[in-house]
Amino acid sequence: xxxxxxxxxxxxxxxxxxxxxxxxxxxxxxxxxxxxxxxxxxxxxxxxxxxxxxxxxxxxxxxxxxxxxxxxxxxxxxxxxxxxxxxxxxxxxxxxxxxxxxxxxxxxxxxxxxxxxxxxxxxxxxxxxxxxxxxxxxxxxxxxxxxxxxxxxxxxxxxxxxxxxxxxxxxxxxxxxxxxxxxxxxxxxxxxxxxxxxxxxxxxxxxxxxxxxxxxxxxxxxxxxxxxxxxxxxxxxxxxxxxxxxxxxxxxxxxxxxxxxxxxxxxxxxxxxxxxxxxxxxxxxxxxxxxxxx
Length: 294
Hints:
Blueprint: H1 2-30, E1 38-45, E2 48-56, H2 62-73, E3 80-86, E4 89-92, E5 95-97, E6 109-111, H3 114-118, E7 132-133, E8 169-171, E9 183-187, E10 193-197, E11 207-210, E12 222-227, H4 230-248, E13 256-264, E14 272-280, E15 284-293
Antiparallel strand pairs: 1-2, 1-15, 2-12, 3-4, 3-15, 4-11, 5-6, 7-9, 8-11, 8-12, 9-10, 13-14
């Protein structure tokens, strides 16, 4: 009887220790970064909500993915809007409306304060994923993202990088012609450092959702995420169908209104530059973006 009880006790202890080990391993694994983080973007339009789940390619675009995950953790994208509705993409991540409930969809468009969200009261950059500096000694960090783009000399072995296809996410910037020729110092994906024109490193928070069914490549944009499942593809199609139905029902006018915008950027030669947005006349709101898996 004593032997039996002793055996049962030893077995119980072994089971308990195994459970503790498994829990420790699970917690340790949870803290690790995966090759393919996943996020959910919830978008609302005309009273309906649409959920898009994305798989991010950290294995290909480590700096870009780390940058956008930091912004998601800050809650930066929650309550922002699609501010530029182009023929092949929805562009968001940089604007909201001063009066989300009652404001005019075009006149009420308001730029988000990216610099305030990513620096402290003294102007020090709070982002951990710093990739662009103002000086060769890398003592003056900026909150801009070094572009993992082919125009910036970045390439994927064997051409395995992501391309624009239906639903993909890409980093976006309106500065892309090189006329803002300020030299900055950047960290490339192979951990080397070098000088580069600022316009190639000017990604901040804006992104696009590619909506065309025709794939394409672009030299100065980085496609870093794909839709994770068929349900998300269906949700994006449903959103686009709802926009089309809304547009068809308009008695006059179109779904967008052109708006000239001055984009302030202290790192450019003139401190700002001009862009033209095709602003939706009915709000497309990015209600929330959350990280499902790191």
